[in-house]
Amino acid sequence: MSVLRFDPFRDSFSQVDRLAHQLLSGTRTPASLPMDLWRSGDTYCVALDLPGVNENSLDVTVDRGALTIRAERQSAFGDDDTVMVAERPQGSFTRQLMLGDDLDTDGIEADYRNGVLLLRIPVAQSAHPRRVEVRHLDESSKPGSARSSDAPPAALDESLMHHKHDRPLVGSPS
Q1: How far, in Å, CA of 157 to CA of 135, rounded?
Q2: Less Cβ crowding at N or C end of the chain, within 10 Å?
Q3: pLDDT cut 70: percent of the chain above it
C-alpha cells in the first residue's frame, strides 16, 4: 500500500499558503494529520489524531485509489475576542493516502473515538494466495493415444516433456 502522494509543487505552494495564513491570522495550522499505519492480519489499520474535531466535520472518501480524509476544527474564541496566544492548530485538515489495487476499498470501515479516527482497510480477496488444483490425467491422455476432452493440447504436452535443448525432463516418458 502506498501511504502518501508526493507532489512537490502542490506541497510547496500549500506550505507558503499555510505560513501566510498563520502570519495574518495569528493562529497555527498543522502541515498534515499525524498518523500511525500497521497491518493486522489481512487488514491495514490507520489511526489519525484529530483531537477537538467535531465528528460531523469528518469526511472520508475513496476515489480512484485515493483515500482522502478531511476534518475541521473551529477555534473556541470569536472574532471580537482578543487572542493572546493561539498555538492549537485550527481550520481544515486534509490527508491523502494512495491505495494499491490489492485492497478492498468497498470494505473500508471508519470509527472516531476519543479524538482518534481509526480506519480499517481490508486486503482484497483477489490478493490472497490461493491453491491451484493439479489435474491428474489418465492413461488415455498420454501423447500418441486418444485424449480426453480436458487434456492439454499436443503442443503443450510436447513442451512439458522436453527441456529447451530437446532433452527429456527427468521422469518424463521418452
Answers
A1: 14
A2: C
A3: 61
Q: Give the contacts of 23 (CB within 8 A, at least 6 positions apart).
A: none
Measured CA distances, 8 to 5, 63, 66 (Å): 10, 21, 18
3-state secondary structure of 135: coil
**In whole angstroms, how far apart are CA 146 and each of 142, 153, 154, 161, 169?**
8, 12, 11, 18, 23
Largest Cα separation within the chain, whole Å, is 95
Give mean pLDDT, residues 114-122: 95
Domains of the chain: 8-127 (2.60.40.790), 131-168 (no CATH)
Q: What does the radius of gyration of the chain's CA atoms come to, in whole angstroms? A: 29
**Could you report the per-residue pLDDT of 63-93, keeping only the tens digit for each?**
998 999 999 988 888 889 999 988 888 888 8
- pTM equals 0.57
- Cell 485424449 -> residue: 147
